[in-house]
């Protein structure tokens, strides 16, 4: 039983302990006062005794959040008892009179959601003297201001603007220490901080017409890199303050109360205008400001293979290191090296100013004259609100000594070891003094009428010559055949008497022999003398008649002599006649 | 034998007179006025009055007279005046009339040096190079004259072949005439192709200071490259204010409202 009792009591104790643990979690909203004037402030603390997250503040509809949430954690361990509290604090100013309600705040502790009960406060007419003038918050709100001064709220893209953060404070507050909690970030800007050195207090500053101590905390020059609405994140400072309290010390002096104050400059929004697109020059590379531009040559007359510098220089005020300088464009035979960039830029509140130079080293290879064409530089002038283009002068470089370009390429200079090209040979040549002029407009001879005439003519001539030639040869051939015909006629004439005596053998041979003799006499143009056979043979040989033909001829004559005394047959008469006429024809052709 | 000798003599005389006729006819027009102007201009050039010299040289051109030396001197004067495009233009004109002149070659290179663009010409095959040297040996009309002289020579040689009775002379005449005929065919085709090339390939010098080259004859095309004054371009097609060109490295593109001066 006892055992059982003790077990129960232990269980009860355990349960009670857990309950007591549960009951210990508290989450409350506490207001500093339930009743306040319209111009007074209300402090509200959300206190919890266990660590929780996901704090959701109530909707302060009827209030203006002056500051907060400020989070504070308090943990103590006294006599073995730990205590923990975490507080979110807001300072509020009421917006209107009447009974105002502050809604529920919410927190998650150990996985459970806790809510505060809503609080109602009564807001009365503004009180003449706000309560508790010695309250630090009240004092600081009145007497400390952090201001971001922006030179131009709607700049052009890439137009420089300056932001100056100034801290104003006045009696009775004195600042012991300043800590920068949150530095402003300039995401869409090119920024350059201006070094201000040691922070100094200017006691003659003015804020809203009233004398204040002024501290310039930071100076920045910004170049917006984007158009549209850009925000500048706020600067937040944590100040260690000394505020005089009501209490006085032994000597009647007020005792200074230490306090802390977080102050922020507030978020600022800029409206950045894009650069106008109309009238934007083609070579515009983003320069905005007021600039001077020039191209300067270090020399304008030199020898080949010496070098000179071409300096492209932009000076003035604007986004000097945010744009590209125009490139120099030189004749192709000049060797140009990568430019060397030199910047002498000073950043002041009115923007960056100075000069940016690009130095090109150029080495001419050949002699000649080299024009450096004008280089154009365009920028946008935000003051005049238009684009401006500056052109450099056209410059000329005279390279007076050195090899001539391309000589080896175009004209085959005989292997240079033998005849080296001297300077005079490679120099620019003088004009030619002698010439024969021709009319500019000449009818081309090629394919002209005259050309074709002279072209056709030889063919005609050829044809003519050929035909004449043919005709002449034909004629001579014809005359030869005439002679033949004459000889045949002659032979026939002599032979005809022989032919008549065909029946009478003796008469036939006598006639034949006579015909042969007569023919020879006529042919060889000899007088009638007795023609012996040997004489005939000799004559024929003299006339270079073929031997065979000559013997045949003589054979016919022999035949004739023989047949006169020895009768022959009818048939031999016929053959002899033919032989004779053939021999005549043969001789005729030979003579 | 006597006959043949006279034939030779006649042929020779005819040939000489023929060539002489061609050569001299065109020169008959050369004028005294042009020569004196030329001398004055040369004097002005020598006294460094280049613009004066240019004016005088141009006056000769206005009178309808020209010569390689005139164009060459004009190119020199413009070079002295630092006018790149003009200088190159006249040197190119001079080269057309006298392709092998050394003075023109050298000073033309000086003018080329003044241009901004470095255009590497396409390498030519040796055959193409040979062809160009052969074609440039004479002007077109000179080639035509040579063609005709060869034709006449052939005809006379062939007639000689026909007329002579002696067989060995006949053979010589025949082979000689065939050789001359082949030469004639060669020079005729050179003249023909040279003429055709000149008619097809039109060149011009760019006078615009700086101009964009586009891939298409409209602004939607791609921007290809930038040309500067003094560039020699070959003219291809044209479409309203657009002109298609090819430069020495083989690149082609369209120019808008380009200031071009034709070379031929």
Q: Can you offer a commentary on this structure?
A:
- The complex is a heterodimer of chains A (591) and B (264).
- By secondary structure, chain A is α+β, with helices and mostly antiparallel strands.
- Chain A contains nine helices and 31 strands.
- Chain A folds into four domains: 25-128, Immunoglobulin-like (Sandwich), CATH 2.60.40.740; 137-272, Sandwich (Immunoglobulin-like); 289-401, Sandwich (Immunoglobulin-like); 479-590, Up-down Bundle (Four Helix Bundle (Hemerythrin (Met), subunit A)), CATH 1.20.120.
- Chain A has helices spanning 2-24, 136-143, 407-410, 423-426, 449-500, 505-524, 533-542, 547-565, 570-590; strands spanning 27-31, 35-37, 42-48, 53-56, 63-78, 81-94, 98-102, 106-109, 112-115, 119-124, 144-150, 161-169, 174-182, 189-194, 201-207, 210-224, 228-232, 236-248, 254-264, 268-272, 289-297, 301-303, 308-318, 334-336, 340-348, 351-364, 368-372, 376-381, 386-391, 395-401, 438-439.
- In chain A, strand 18 (236-248) and strand 19 (254-264) form a beta hairpin.
- In chain A, helix 5 (449-500) packs antiparallel against helix 6.
- Chain B folds into three domains: 2-23 and 127-199; 31-113, Tetratricopeptide repeat domain (Serine Threonine Protein Phosphatase 5, Tetratricopeptide repeat, Alpha Horseshoe); 202-262, SH3 type barrels (Roll).
- Chain B has helices at residues 2-27, 32-46, 50-62, 68-80, 84-97, 102-113, 126-135, 140-163, 167-200; strands spanning 65-66, 202-206, 210-214, 223-228, 232-239, 242-247, 252-256, 260-262.
- In chain B, a hairpin with a 2-residue loop joins strand 5 (232-239) and strand 6.
- In chain B, helix 2 packs antiparallel against helix 3 (50-62) and helix 5 runs antiparallel to helix 6.
- The chains are: A alpha+beta (591), B alpha+beta (264).
- The interface between A and B is large, with 48 and 64 residues.
């Amino acid at each position: 039983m006892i055992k059982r009792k003790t077990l129960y009591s232990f269980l009860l104790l355990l349960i009670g302990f857990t309950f007591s643990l549960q009951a210990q979690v508290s989450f409350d909203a506490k207001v500093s006062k339930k009743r306040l004037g319209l111009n007074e402030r209300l402090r509200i603390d959300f206190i919890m005794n266990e660590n929780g997250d996901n704090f959701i503040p109530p909707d302060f509809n009827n209030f203006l959040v002056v500051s907060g949430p400020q989070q504070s954690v308090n943990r103590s361990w006294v006599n073995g008892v730990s205590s923990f509290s975490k507080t979110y604090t807001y300072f509020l100013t009421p917006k209107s009179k009447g009974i105002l309600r502050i809604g529920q705040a919410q927190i998650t502790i150990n996985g459970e959601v806790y809510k505060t009960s809503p609080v109602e406060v009564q807001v009365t007419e503004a009180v003449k003297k706000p309560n508790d003038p010695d309250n630090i918050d009240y004092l600081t709100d009145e007497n400390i201001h952090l201001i971001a001064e922006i030179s131009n709220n709607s700049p052009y893209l890439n137009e420089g603007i300056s932001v100056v953060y100034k801290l104003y404070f006045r009696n009775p507050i004195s600042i012991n220490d300043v800590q920068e909690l949150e530095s402003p970030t300039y995401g869409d800007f090119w920024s350059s901080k201006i070094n201000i050195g040691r922070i100094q207090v200017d006691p003659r500053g003015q804020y809203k017409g009233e004398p204040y101590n002024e501290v310039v905390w930071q100076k920045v020059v910004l170049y917006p890199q984007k158009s549209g609405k850009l925000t500048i994140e706020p600067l937040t400072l944590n100040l260690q303050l000394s505020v005089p309290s009501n209490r006085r010390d032994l000597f009647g002096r007020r005792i200074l109360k230490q306090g802390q104050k977080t102050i922020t400059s507030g978020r600022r929004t800029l409206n950045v205008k894009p650069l106008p697109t109309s009238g934007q020059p083609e070579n515009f590379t983003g320069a905005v400001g007021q600039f001077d531009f020039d191209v300067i040559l270090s020399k304008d007359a030199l020898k080949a293979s010496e070098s000179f510098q071409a300096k492209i220089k932009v000076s003035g005020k604007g986004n000097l290191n945010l744009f590209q300088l125009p490139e120099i464009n030189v004749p192709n035979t000049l060797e140009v090296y990568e430019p060397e960039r030199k910047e002498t830029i000073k950043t002041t509140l009115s923007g960056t100013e100075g000069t940016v130079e690009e130095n090109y080293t150029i080495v001419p290879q050949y002699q000649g004259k080299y024009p450096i064409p004008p280089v154009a530089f365009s920028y946008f002038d935000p003051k005049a609100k238009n684009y401006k283009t500056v052109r450099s002068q056209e410059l000329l470089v005279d390279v007076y000594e050195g090899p001539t370009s391309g000589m080896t390429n175009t004209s085959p200079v005989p292997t240079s070891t033998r005849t080296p090209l001297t300077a005079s040979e490679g120099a620019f040549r003088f004009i030619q003094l002698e010439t024969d002029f021709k009319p500019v407009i000449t009818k081309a001879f090629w394919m002209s009428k005259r050309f074709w005439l002279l072209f056709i003519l030889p063919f005609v001539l050829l044809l003519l010559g050929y035909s004449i030639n043919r005709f002449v040869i034909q004629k001579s051939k014809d005359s030869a055949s005439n002679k033949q015909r004459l000889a045949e006629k002659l032979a026939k004439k002599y032979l005809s008497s022989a032919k008549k005596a065909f029946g009478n053998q003796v008469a036939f041979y006598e006639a034949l022999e006579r015909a042969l003799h007569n023919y020879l006499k006529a042919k060889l143009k000899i007088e009638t003398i007795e023609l012996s056979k040997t004489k005939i043979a000799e004559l024929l040989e003299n006339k270079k008649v073929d031997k065979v033909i000559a013997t045949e001829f003589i054979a016919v004559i022999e035949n004739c002599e023989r047949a006169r005394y020895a009768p022959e047959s009818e048939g031999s008469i016929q053959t002899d006649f033919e032989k004779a006429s053939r021999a005549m024809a043969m001789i005729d052709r030979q003579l | 034998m006597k006959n043949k000798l006279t034939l030779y003599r006649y042929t020779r005389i005819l040939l000489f007179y023929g060539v002489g006729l061609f050569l001299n006819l065109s020169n008959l027009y050369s004028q005294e006025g042009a020569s004196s102007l030329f001398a004055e201009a040369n004097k002005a050039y020598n006294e460094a009055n280049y613009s004066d010299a240019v004016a005088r040289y141009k006056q000769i051109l206005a009178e309808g007279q020209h010569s390689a030396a005139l164009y060459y001197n004009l190119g020199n004067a413009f070079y002295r005046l630092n006018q790149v495009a003009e200088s190159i233009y006249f040197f190119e004109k001079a080269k057309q009339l006298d392709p092998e002149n050394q003075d023109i070659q050298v000073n033309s290179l000086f003018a080329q040096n003044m241009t901004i663009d470095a255009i590497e010409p396409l390498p030519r095959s040796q055959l193409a190079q040979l062809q160009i040297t052969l074609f440039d040996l004479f002007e077109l009309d000179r080639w035509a004259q040579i063609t005709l002289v060869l034709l006449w020579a052939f005809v006379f040689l062939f007639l000689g072949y026909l007329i002579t009775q002696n067989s060995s002379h006949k053979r010589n005449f025949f082979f000689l005439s065939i050789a001359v005929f082949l030469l004639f065919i060669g020079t005729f085709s050179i003249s023909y192709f040279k003429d055709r090339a000149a008619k097809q390939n039109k060149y011009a010098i760019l006078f615009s200071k700086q101009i964009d080259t586009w891939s298409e004859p409209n602004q939607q095309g791609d921007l290809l490259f930038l040309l500067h004054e003094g560039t020699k371009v070959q003219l291809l097609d044209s479409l309203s204010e657009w002109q298609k060109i090819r430069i020495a490295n083989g690149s082609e593109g369209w120019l808008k409202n380009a200031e071009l001066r034709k070379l031929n």
